[in-house]
Design brief:
mitochondrion, globular, alpha/beta, 17 strands, six-stranded mixed β-sheet, FAD, 459 residues
Protein backbone atom coordinates (compact mmCIF):
# COMPACT_ATOMS: atom_id res chain seq x y z
CA UNK A 1 0.00 0.00 0.00
CA UNK A 2 2.82 2.39 0.86
CA UNK A 3 4.47 1.62 -2.47
CA UNK A 4 1.25 2.34 -4.40
CA UNK A 5 0.73 5.59 -2.50
CA UNK A 6 4.30 6.67 -3.19
CA UNK A 7 3.90 6.04 -6.90
CA UNK A 8 0.62 7.94 -7.10
CA UNK A 9 2.22 10.97 -5.41
CA UNK A 10 4.40 11.48 -8.46
CA UNK A 11 3.00 10.03 -11.65
CA UNK A 12 5.53 9.06 -14.27
CA UNK A 13 5.04 10.56 -17.72
CA UNK A 14 5.35 8.37 -20.81
CA UNK A 15 5.65 9.93 -24.27
CA UNK A 16 4.55 7.54 -27.02
CA UNK A 17 5.85 8.68 -30.41
CA UNK A 18 3.58 7.23 -33.09
CA UNK A 19 -0.18 6.83 -32.81
CA UNK A 20 -0.61 3.81 -35.08
CA UNK A 21 -1.45 0.25 -34.10
CA UNK A 22 1.32 -0.36 -31.58
CA UNK A 23 1.43 3.21 -30.30
CA UNK A 24 -2.30 3.28 -29.55
CA UNK A 25 -2.19 -0.09 -27.79
CA UNK A 26 0.87 0.94 -25.80
CA UNK A 27 -0.97 4.05 -24.65
CA UNK A 28 -3.69 1.80 -23.22
CA UNK A 29 -1.15 -0.34 -21.38
CA UNK A 30 0.66 2.60 -19.79
CA UNK A 31 -2.58 4.45 -19.00
CA UNK A 32 -4.00 1.35 -17.33
CA UNK A 33 -0.95 1.32 -15.06
CA UNK A 34 -1.65 4.89 -14.03
CA UNK A 35 1.04 6.73 -15.99
CA UNK A 36 0.33 10.07 -17.61
CA UNK A 37 0.50 9.28 -21.33
CA UNK A 38 1.16 11.70 -24.18
CA UNK A 39 0.79 10.27 -27.70
CA UNK A 40 2.36 12.17 -30.61
CA UNK A 41 1.34 11.33 -34.19
CA UNK A 42 2.57 13.00 -37.39
CA UNK A 43 -0.61 12.32 -39.35
CA UNK A 44 -3.98 13.88 -38.79
CA UNK A 45 -6.62 12.01 -36.80
CA UNK A 46 -7.81 9.15 -39.06
CA UNK A 47 -11.22 9.33 -37.39
CA UNK A 48 -11.70 12.79 -38.89
CA UNK A 49 -9.75 12.43 -42.14
CA UNK A 50 -11.75 12.21 -45.36
CA UNK A 51 -8.98 10.28 -47.09
CA UNK A 52 -6.66 7.95 -45.19
CA UNK A 53 -3.33 7.59 -46.95
CA UNK A 54 -0.86 4.78 -46.51
CA UNK A 55 -0.38 1.09 -47.11
CA UNK A 56 -3.59 -0.90 -46.89
CA UNK A 57 -2.35 -4.49 -46.75
CA UNK A 58 -4.99 -6.22 -44.62
CA UNK A 59 -4.07 -7.11 -41.06
CA UNK A 60 -4.16 -10.70 -39.77
CA UNK A 61 -4.93 -10.92 -36.05
CA UNK A 62 -3.97 -14.22 -34.43
CA UNK A 63 -3.34 -15.54 -30.92
CA UNK A 64 -0.44 -13.26 -29.97
CA UNK A 65 -2.27 -10.11 -30.97
CA UNK A 66 -5.51 -11.23 -29.37
CA UNK A 67 -3.71 -11.98 -26.11
CA UNK A 68 -2.32 -8.44 -26.06
CA UNK A 69 -5.75 -6.94 -26.77
CA UNK A 70 -7.43 -9.13 -24.16
CA UNK A 71 -5.11 -7.83 -21.45
CA UNK A 72 -6.55 -4.32 -21.81
CA UNK A 73 -10.13 -5.46 -22.45
CA UNK A 74 -10.16 -4.77 -26.19
CA UNK A 75 -10.29 -8.26 -27.69
CA UNK A 76 -14.06 -8.68 -28.05
CA UNK A 77 -14.56 -5.20 -29.47
CA UNK A 78 -11.85 -5.67 -32.10
CA UNK A 79 -12.78 -9.25 -32.99
CA UNK A 80 -16.38 -8.21 -33.66
CA UNK A 81 -15.12 -5.97 -36.48
CA UNK A 82 -13.05 -8.63 -38.23
CA UNK A 83 -13.59 -11.39 -40.79
CA UNK A 84 -12.63 -14.94 -39.71
CA UNK A 85 -10.12 -16.69 -41.98
CA UNK A 86 -10.32 -20.49 -41.99
CA UNK A 87 -7.89 -21.60 -44.70
CA UNK A 88 -5.88 -20.80 -47.78
CA UNK A 89 -7.57 -21.24 -51.15
CA UNK A 90 -5.05 -22.10 -53.85
CA UNK A 91 -5.98 -21.09 -57.41
CA UNK A 92 -4.25 -23.05 -60.18
CA UNK A 93 -3.67 -21.81 -63.72
CA UNK A 94 -6.60 -23.92 -64.88
CA UNK A 95 -8.89 -22.20 -62.38
CA UNK A 96 -9.11 -25.15 -60.00
CA UNK A 97 -9.52 -24.11 -56.35
CA UNK A 98 -7.97 -26.22 -53.57
CA UNK A 99 -8.38 -25.27 -49.89
CA UNK A 100 -5.54 -25.85 -47.42
CA UNK A 101 -7.02 -25.62 -43.89
CA UNK A 102 -5.03 -23.82 -41.21
CA UNK A 103 -5.66 -26.71 -38.83
CA UNK A 104 -7.09 -24.61 -35.98
CA UNK A 105 -9.58 -21.79 -35.71
CA UNK A 106 -7.66 -19.69 -38.21
CA UNK A 107 -7.00 -15.99 -38.07
CA UNK A 108 -9.08 -12.84 -38.00
CA UNK A 109 -8.76 -10.26 -40.74
CA UNK A 110 -8.80 -6.61 -39.74
CA UNK A 111 -8.66 -3.49 -41.85
CA UNK A 112 -8.23 -0.62 -39.44
CA UNK A 113 -7.69 0.11 -35.78
CA UNK A 114 -7.92 3.62 -34.40
CA UNK A 115 -6.85 5.33 -31.17
CA UNK A 116 -10.37 5.69 -29.78
CA UNK A 117 -9.79 3.16 -26.98
CA UNK A 118 -6.67 4.95 -25.76
CA UNK A 119 -8.61 8.19 -25.50
CA UNK A 120 -11.08 6.63 -23.06
CA UNK A 121 -8.39 6.84 -20.37
CA UNK A 122 -8.50 10.28 -18.67
CA UNK A 123 -4.71 10.21 -18.18
CA UNK A 124 -4.04 9.94 -21.94
CA UNK A 125 -3.68 12.85 -24.37
CA UNK A 126 -3.55 12.35 -28.15
CA UNK A 127 -1.57 14.94 -30.12
CA UNK A 128 -2.05 14.75 -33.90
CA UNK A 129 -0.10 16.63 -36.55
CA UNK A 130 3.07 16.60 -34.44
CA UNK A 131 6.36 15.68 -36.12
CA UNK A 132 9.63 14.91 -34.35
CA UNK A 133 12.46 16.90 -35.93
CA UNK A 134 16.14 17.52 -35.22
CA UNK A 135 15.41 21.05 -34.02
CA UNK A 136 12.29 20.66 -31.93
CA UNK A 137 10.38 23.84 -31.19
CA UNK A 138 8.44 22.31 -28.31
CA UNK A 139 10.01 20.61 -25.31
CA UNK A 140 8.25 17.73 -23.58
CA UNK A 141 9.41 16.31 -20.26
CA UNK A 142 8.91 12.55 -19.94
CA UNK A 143 10.26 9.74 -17.81
CA UNK A 144 10.13 7.34 -20.75
CA UNK A 145 9.99 7.79 -24.53
CA UNK A 146 8.46 4.88 -26.46
CA UNK A 147 9.28 4.88 -30.18
CA UNK A 148 6.36 3.35 -32.09
CA UNK A 149 6.81 5.48 -35.20
CA UNK A 150 7.17 2.81 -37.85
CA UNK A 151 9.78 1.32 -40.16
CA UNK A 152 11.37 4.72 -40.86
CA UNK A 153 11.38 5.73 -37.21
CA UNK A 154 12.65 9.19 -36.27
CA UNK A 155 13.30 7.90 -32.75
CA UNK A 156 15.48 5.09 -34.11
CA UNK A 157 17.54 7.64 -36.07
CA UNK A 158 18.63 9.07 -32.73
CA UNK A 159 19.84 5.59 -31.75
CA UNK A 160 22.07 5.56 -34.83
CA UNK A 161 24.11 8.40 -33.37
CA UNK A 162 25.21 6.19 -30.49
CA UNK A 163 27.97 3.62 -30.53
CA UNK A 164 27.26 -0.11 -30.39
CA UNK A 165 23.85 0.20 -31.99
CA UNK A 166 23.41 -2.38 -34.75
CA UNK A 167 20.98 -1.66 -37.55
CA UNK A 168 20.16 -3.20 -40.91
CA UNK A 169 17.40 -2.81 -43.44
CA UNK A 170 16.71 -5.02 -46.43
CA UNK A 171 14.47 -4.23 -49.36
CA UNK A 172 13.28 -7.37 -51.09
CA UNK A 173 13.54 -7.30 -54.91
CA UNK A 174 9.78 -7.64 -55.22
CA UNK A 175 7.13 -4.96 -54.99
CA UNK A 176 3.40 -5.06 -54.51
CA UNK A 177 0.39 -3.53 -56.23
CA UNK A 178 -3.20 -3.47 -55.01
CA UNK A 179 -6.29 -4.03 -57.15
CA UNK A 180 -9.93 -4.15 -56.11
CA UNK A 181 -12.37 -6.97 -56.86
CA UNK A 182 -15.90 -5.52 -56.51
CA UNK A 183 -18.91 -7.41 -55.13
CA UNK A 184 -21.28 -9.23 -57.49
CA UNK A 185 -24.96 -8.52 -56.88
CA UNK A 186 -24.06 -7.11 -53.48
CA UNK A 187 -22.18 -10.22 -52.35
CA UNK A 188 -18.54 -11.33 -52.27
CA UNK A 189 -17.26 -12.40 -55.68
CA UNK A 190 -15.40 -15.34 -54.06
CA UNK A 191 -15.67 -17.28 -50.81
CA UNK A 192 -14.86 -14.69 -48.14
CA UNK A 193 -13.35 -16.74 -45.29
CA UNK A 194 -10.19 -17.66 -47.16
CA UNK A 195 -6.80 -16.24 -47.99
CA UNK A 196 -6.96 -16.67 -51.76
CA UNK A 197 -3.55 -17.33 -53.35
CA UNK A 198 -2.52 -17.57 -56.99
CA UNK A 199 1.04 -18.99 -56.65
CA UNK A 200 3.14 -18.67 -59.80
CA UNK A 201 6.61 -19.67 -58.56
CA UNK A 202 8.50 -16.37 -59.02
CA UNK A 203 5.50 -14.18 -58.19
CA UNK A 204 1.99 -14.46 -56.81
CA UNK A 205 -1.28 -12.69 -56.20
CA UNK A 206 -3.40 -12.90 -53.06
CA UNK A 207 -6.91 -11.67 -52.31
CA UNK A 208 -8.44 -10.85 -48.94
CA UNK A 209 -12.03 -9.86 -48.16
CA UNK A 210 -13.15 -6.45 -46.91
CA UNK A 211 -16.18 -5.56 -44.83
CA UNK A 212 -17.78 -3.77 -47.81
CA UNK A 213 -17.91 -7.11 -49.73
CA UNK A 214 -14.96 -6.20 -51.96
CA UNK A 215 -11.67 -8.08 -52.13
CA UNK A 216 -8.27 -6.41 -52.03
CA UNK A 217 -6.11 -8.25 -54.55
CA UNK A 218 -2.38 -7.75 -54.01
CA UNK A 219 0.06 -8.66 -56.77
CA UNK A 220 3.59 -9.41 -55.50
CA UNK A 221 6.16 -9.49 -58.28
CA UNK A 222 9.78 -8.52 -59.13
CA UNK A 223 10.01 -4.82 -59.93
CA UNK A 224 11.38 -5.50 -63.40
CA UNK A 225 8.28 -7.55 -64.22
CA UNK A 226 6.03 -4.66 -63.20
CA UNK A 227 8.03 -2.36 -65.44
CA UNK A 228 7.74 -4.64 -68.48
CA UNK A 229 3.99 -4.03 -68.65
CA UNK A 230 3.42 -0.61 -70.21
CA UNK A 231 -0.02 -0.71 -71.85
CA UNK A 232 -3.54 -1.73 -70.89
CA UNK A 233 -3.54 -4.52 -73.47
CA UNK A 234 -0.35 -5.93 -71.96
CA UNK A 235 -2.03 -5.95 -68.55
CA UNK A 236 -4.89 -8.06 -69.88
CA UNK A 237 -2.49 -10.34 -71.73
CA UNK A 238 -0.51 -10.86 -68.51
CA UNK A 239 -3.61 -11.62 -66.45
CA UNK A 240 -5.00 -13.89 -69.17
CA UNK A 241 -1.80 -15.91 -69.01
CA UNK A 242 -1.37 -16.13 -65.23
CA UNK A 243 -4.65 -15.19 -63.50
CA UNK A 244 -7.39 -15.83 -66.08
CA UNK A 245 -10.12 -16.57 -63.52
CA UNK A 246 -9.77 -13.08 -62.00
CA UNK A 247 -10.39 -11.07 -65.19
CA UNK A 248 -14.21 -11.33 -65.15
CA UNK A 249 -14.21 -10.72 -61.38
CA UNK A 250 -12.04 -7.59 -61.39
CA UNK A 251 -13.10 -6.35 -64.82
CA UNK A 252 -11.11 -5.56 -67.96
CA UNK A 253 -11.51 -1.79 -67.70
CA UNK A 254 -10.65 -1.76 -63.99
CA UNK A 255 -7.50 -3.80 -64.61
CA UNK A 256 -6.34 -1.49 -67.38
CA UNK A 257 -6.96 1.56 -65.21
CA UNK A 258 -5.87 0.43 -61.75
CA UNK A 259 -2.64 -1.26 -62.79
CA UNK A 260 -1.15 2.11 -63.69
CA UNK A 261 -2.57 4.05 -60.75
CA UNK A 262 0.61 3.52 -58.70
CA UNK A 263 3.90 1.77 -59.49
CA UNK A 264 4.91 -1.34 -57.58
CA UNK A 265 5.47 -0.40 -53.93
CA UNK A 266 8.58 -1.44 -51.97
CA UNK A 267 8.71 -3.68 -48.89
CA UNK A 268 11.43 -3.41 -46.25
CA UNK A 269 12.60 -5.60 -43.40
CA UNK A 270 14.34 -3.89 -40.45
CA UNK A 271 16.47 -5.37 -37.68
CA UNK A 272 18.27 -3.56 -34.89
CA UNK A 273 19.67 -4.05 -31.42
CA UNK A 274 19.52 -2.94 -28.65
CA UNK A 275 15.95 -1.71 -28.43
CA UNK A 276 16.66 0.73 -25.62
CA UNK A 277 18.85 3.61 -24.47
CA UNK A 278 19.50 3.52 -20.73
CA UNK A 279 16.26 3.84 -18.81
CA UNK A 280 14.84 6.63 -20.96
CA UNK A 281 13.89 5.33 -24.41
CA UNK A 282 12.67 2.09 -26.00
CA UNK A 283 11.62 0.98 -29.49
CA UNK A 284 8.58 -1.18 -30.25
CA UNK A 285 6.68 -2.42 -33.29
CA UNK A 286 7.99 -1.61 -36.77
CA UNK A 287 10.40 0.94 -35.30
CA UNK A 288 12.25 -2.02 -33.77
CA UNK A 289 11.49 -4.82 -36.24
CA UNK A 290 9.65 -4.06 -39.47
CA UNK A 291 8.84 -7.31 -41.28
CA UNK A 292 7.57 -8.12 -44.75
CA UNK A 293 3.88 -9.14 -44.73
CA UNK A 294 4.16 -12.80 -45.74
CA UNK A 295 3.62 -14.48 -42.38
CA UNK A 296 0.76 -12.34 -41.15
CA UNK A 297 2.70 -11.59 -37.95
CA UNK A 298 3.74 -7.93 -38.29
CA UNK A 299 0.89 -6.52 -36.21
CA UNK A 300 0.86 -9.54 -33.91
CA UNK A 301 4.58 -9.17 -33.14
CA UNK A 302 4.07 -5.46 -32.45
CA UNK A 303 1.13 -6.14 -30.15
CA UNK A 304 3.12 -8.84 -28.39
CA UNK A 305 5.85 -6.24 -27.74
CA UNK A 306 3.28 -4.40 -25.61
CA UNK A 307 2.28 -7.36 -23.48
CA UNK A 308 5.87 -8.59 -23.08
CA UNK A 309 6.90 -5.11 -21.89
CA UNK A 310 3.93 -5.15 -19.50
CA UNK A 311 4.97 -8.54 -18.11
CA UNK A 312 8.52 -7.33 -17.57
CA UNK A 313 7.21 -4.15 -15.93
CA UNK A 314 5.32 -6.33 -13.48
CA UNK A 315 8.38 -8.49 -12.89
CA UNK A 316 10.67 -5.54 -12.10
CA UNK A 317 8.13 -3.31 -10.35
CA UNK A 318 8.21 -0.60 -13.05
CA UNK A 319 11.94 0.04 -12.59
CA UNK A 320 12.84 1.27 -16.09
CA UNK A 321 16.57 0.78 -15.45
CA UNK A 322 15.89 -2.97 -15.16
CA UNK A 323 12.88 -3.25 -17.46
CA UNK A 324 14.41 -1.81 -20.64
CA UNK A 325 17.57 -4.00 -20.79
CA UNK A 326 15.47 -7.08 -20.02
CA UNK A 327 13.02 -6.16 -22.77
CA UNK A 328 15.89 -5.97 -25.27
CA UNK A 329 17.29 -9.29 -24.07
CA UNK A 330 13.94 -11.04 -24.39
CA UNK A 331 12.56 -9.52 -27.57
CA UNK A 332 15.49 -9.15 -29.98
CA UNK A 333 15.95 -12.89 -30.76
CA UNK A 334 12.20 -13.34 -31.19
CA UNK A 335 11.70 -10.37 -33.48
CA UNK A 336 14.71 -11.30 -35.60
CA UNK A 337 13.31 -14.82 -35.92
CA UNK A 338 9.91 -13.68 -37.19
CA UNK A 339 11.59 -11.28 -39.62
CA UNK A 340 13.51 -14.22 -41.12
CA UNK A 341 10.40 -16.41 -41.23
CA UNK A 342 8.44 -13.71 -43.02
CA UNK A 343 11.18 -13.39 -45.63
CA UNK A 344 11.25 -17.14 -46.23
CA UNK A 345 7.49 -17.51 -46.30
CA UNK A 346 7.22 -15.51 -49.51
CA UNK A 347 9.08 -18.34 -51.23
CA UNK A 348 6.69 -20.86 -49.74
CA UNK A 349 3.53 -18.96 -50.67
CA UNK A 350 4.49 -18.28 -54.27
CA UNK A 351 6.18 -21.62 -55.04
CA UNK A 352 6.05 -24.43 -52.46
CA UNK A 353 2.26 -24.59 -52.21
CA UNK A 354 2.34 -25.81 -55.82
CA UNK A 355 4.33 -28.93 -54.92
CA UNK A 356 2.89 -32.31 -54.02
CA UNK A 357 5.62 -32.71 -51.42
CA UNK A 358 4.56 -29.55 -49.59
CA UNK A 359 0.91 -30.62 -49.48
CA UNK A 360 1.80 -34.13 -48.40
CA UNK A 361 4.20 -32.87 -45.72
CA UNK A 362 1.52 -30.56 -44.35
CA UNK A 363 -0.93 -33.46 -44.05
CA UNK A 364 1.74 -35.55 -42.29
CA UNK A 365 2.55 -32.68 -39.90
CA UNK A 366 -1.10 -32.26 -38.99
CA UNK A 367 -1.60 -36.02 -38.59
CA UNK A 368 1.44 -36.42 -36.32
CA UNK A 369 0.39 -33.36 -34.33
CA UNK A 370 -3.06 -34.92 -33.83
CA UNK A 371 -1.63 -38.15 -32.41
CA UNK A 372 1.39 -36.58 -30.62
CA UNK A 373 0.24 -33.02 -29.82
CA UNK A 374 2.97 -32.35 -27.25
CA UNK A 375 5.80 -33.79 -29.33
CA UNK A 376 5.15 -32.71 -32.91
CA UNK A 377 3.78 -29.20 -33.41
CA UNK A 378 3.77 -27.63 -36.90
CA UNK A 379 5.73 -24.39 -37.03
CA UNK A 380 2.70 -22.45 -38.24
CA UNK A 381 0.71 -23.70 -35.25
CA UNK A 382 3.44 -22.59 -32.84
CA UNK A 383 3.75 -19.17 -34.45
CA UNK A 384 0.08 -18.40 -35.00
CA UNK A 385 -1.86 -20.26 -32.31
CA UNK A 386 0.41 -19.93 -29.28
CA UNK A 387 2.71 -17.55 -27.48
CA UNK A 388 5.71 -19.86 -27.76
CA UNK A 389 8.59 -17.46 -28.35
CA UNK A 390 9.32 -17.04 -32.05
CA UNK A 391 12.96 -18.11 -31.86
CA UNK A 392 12.08 -21.09 -29.67
CA UNK A 393 9.41 -22.13 -32.18
CA UNK A 394 12.04 -22.11 -34.94
CA UNK A 395 14.47 -24.12 -32.80
CA UNK A 396 11.78 -26.65 -31.96
CA UNK A 397 10.80 -26.98 -35.61
CA UNK A 398 14.40 -27.67 -36.60
CA UNK A 399 14.65 -30.25 -33.84
CA UNK A 400 11.48 -31.95 -35.04
CA UNK A 401 12.76 -31.94 -38.58
CA UNK A 402 16.07 -33.48 -37.55
CA UNK A 403 14.48 -36.37 -35.72
CA UNK A 404 15.65 -39.23 -37.88
CA UNK A 405 12.57 -41.37 -37.37
CA UNK A 406 10.28 -38.48 -38.28
CA UNK A 407 12.11 -37.82 -41.55
CA UNK A 408 12.16 -41.50 -42.46
CA UNK A 409 8.43 -41.74 -41.84
CA UNK A 410 7.80 -38.74 -44.07
CA UNK A 411 9.90 -40.05 -46.95
CA UNK A 412 8.56 -43.58 -46.76
CA UNK A 413 4.94 -42.48 -46.49
CA UNK A 414 5.36 -40.10 -49.40
CA UNK A 415 6.98 -42.71 -51.63
CA UNK A 416 4.25 -45.25 -50.90
CA UNK A 417 1.60 -42.57 -51.32
CA UNK A 418 2.98 -41.72 -54.78
CA UNK A 419 3.15 -45.36 -55.76
CA UNK A 420 -0.40 -46.03 -54.60
CA UNK A 421 -1.67 -43.05 -56.54
CA UNK A 422 -0.24 -44.49 -59.76
CA UNK A 423 -2.26 -47.68 -59.17
CA UNK A 424 0.40 -49.63 -60.98
CA UNK A 425 1.72 -52.59 -59.01
CA UNK A 426 4.43 -53.21 -61.58
CA UNK A 427 6.16 -50.04 -60.41
CA UNK A 428 7.39 -51.91 -57.34
CA UNK A 429 9.60 -54.10 -59.48
CA UNK A 430 11.50 -51.04 -60.64
CA UNK A 431 12.54 -49.95 -57.15
CA UNK A 432 16.04 -51.00 -56.16
CA UNK A 433 16.32 -51.81 -52.47
CA UNK A 434 19.38 -49.63 -51.97
CA UNK A 435 18.39 -46.72 -54.23
CA UNK A 436 16.30 -43.71 -53.09
CA UNK A 437 13.45 -42.71 -55.35
CA UNK A 438 12.51 -39.13 -56.18
CA UNK A 439 8.76 -38.47 -56.24
CA UNK A 440 9.26 -36.38 -59.40
CA UNK A 441 10.91 -37.84 -62.49
CA UNK A 442 12.88 -34.63 -63.16
CA UNK A 443 13.79 -33.68 -59.57
CA UNK A 444 16.80 -34.70 -57.53
CA UNK A 445 16.05 -36.22 -54.13
CA UNK A 446 18.31 -33.58 -52.55
CA UNK A 447 16.08 -30.85 -53.99
CA UNK A 448 13.00 -32.44 -52.47
CA UNK A 449 14.66 -32.76 -49.07
CA UNK A 450 15.79 -29.15 -49.17
CA UNK A 451 12.32 -27.94 -50.07
CA UNK A 452 10.86 -29.77 -47.09
CA UNK A 453 13.57 -28.91 -44.63
CA UNK A 454 12.27 -25.48 -43.61
CA UNK A 455 8.59 -25.44 -44.40
CA UNK A 456 6.75 -22.70 -42.51
CA UNK A 457 3.19 -23.62 -43.46
CA UNK A 458 2.25 -20.14 -43.30
CA UNK A 459 -0.03 -17.45 -43.09
Amino acid sequence: MEESASRSDKKKVVAVVGGGLVGALNACYFAKRGFDVQVFETREDIRKAKIVKGRSINLALSHRGRSALKHVGMEDKIVSKGIPMHARMIHSLSGKQSPIPYGKKGQLLLQRLNPTEAETYPNTTLNFGRKLSDGSEEEIQADLIVGCDGAFSAIRKQFLRRSRFNFSQTYIPHGYMELTMPPINGEFAMKPNYLHIWPRNTFMMIALPNLDKTFTCTLFMPFEEFEKITTGDEVIEFFQKYFPDTIPLIGVDALKRDYFRLPGQAMVSVKCTPYHIGDKCVLMGDAAHAVVPFYGQGMNAGFEDCIVFEEIMEQFNEDFSAVLPEYTRVRVPDDHAIADLAMYNYIEMRAHVNSRWFLFRKHVDNFLHAIMPKTIIPLYTMVTFSRIRYHEAVKRWHWQDKVRCFKKICHLLFIFHSLAARRNVSDFSNLAADEPVSPWPHAELSDVTCAAGFSTNGP
